[in-house]
Amino acid sequence: MRLILLGPPGAGKGTQAKLLMKKYNIPQISTGDILRRAVQDDNDLGRKAKTSMDAGSLVPDETVIGLIRERIREADCARGFILDGFPRTEVQAEKLDEMLRELELTIDAVLDFSVDAEELVLRLTGRRTCRECGAMFHVDGRPPKRSGVCDHCDGALYQRPDDNQATITKRMEVYEKETAPLKKYYSQQGNLKTLEGAGDTEQIFSRVCQLVSS
Ligand code: AMP
Q1: Which of 62, 86, 161, 201 lies at a 20 to 30 A Cα distance from 139?
Q2: What residue ranges define each of the domains in the chain, with the CATH number in brackets?
Q3: Which of 36, 95, 123, 127 is the catalytic position?
């Protein structure tokens, strides 16, 4: 199964991608995670991406397209994958279509998470992520059992540097301008499925599963 998760920052794509990954045993491919790892490792890719990421703008199309081109050819993607945070521009969507055509693959569904703007800001400012396993918590909505420590692996929780009010505002603007038009792109292809992204994680996951299997 090959899925694209679409939606604004904070819509819950990462959380749902992890649940889908477990259920279907296919990898989550998050360009944001790949780029953050590169920034942490301070490699060439990370140094190229850091300025855009810190500013809440997009990393150049050719950089992320290159990452995806390599990643979807890896062995663990043979049974499918979940794209989380890619594509984010029309150029990326077109290139993805091209890559899939070359590989004779298709996308089964594009899940579009719809969440109210105020709720998104609350989710992002309170979000905490495990440095080790990537599990996500929220200081109010889903607090860890021990403050600053991951429930699953005891890793340290951190707040993403781009989860601050000014950068969030910029990311939302970028989403509206660059990424929201992809809803029309995929709706014209006939595989867009929109879902209500409000509610608790399990409720949303059951909506996701219903859409994926329909
Ligand atoms: P995310 O973790 O998906 O919120 O992404 C964090 C940041 O990584 C974004 O604000 C962008 O700077 C960069 N990024 C992630 N995915 C992409 C993409 N598909 N195209 C361009 N930049 C991206």
Answers
A1: 86
A2: 2-115+179-213 (3.40.50.300)
A3: 127
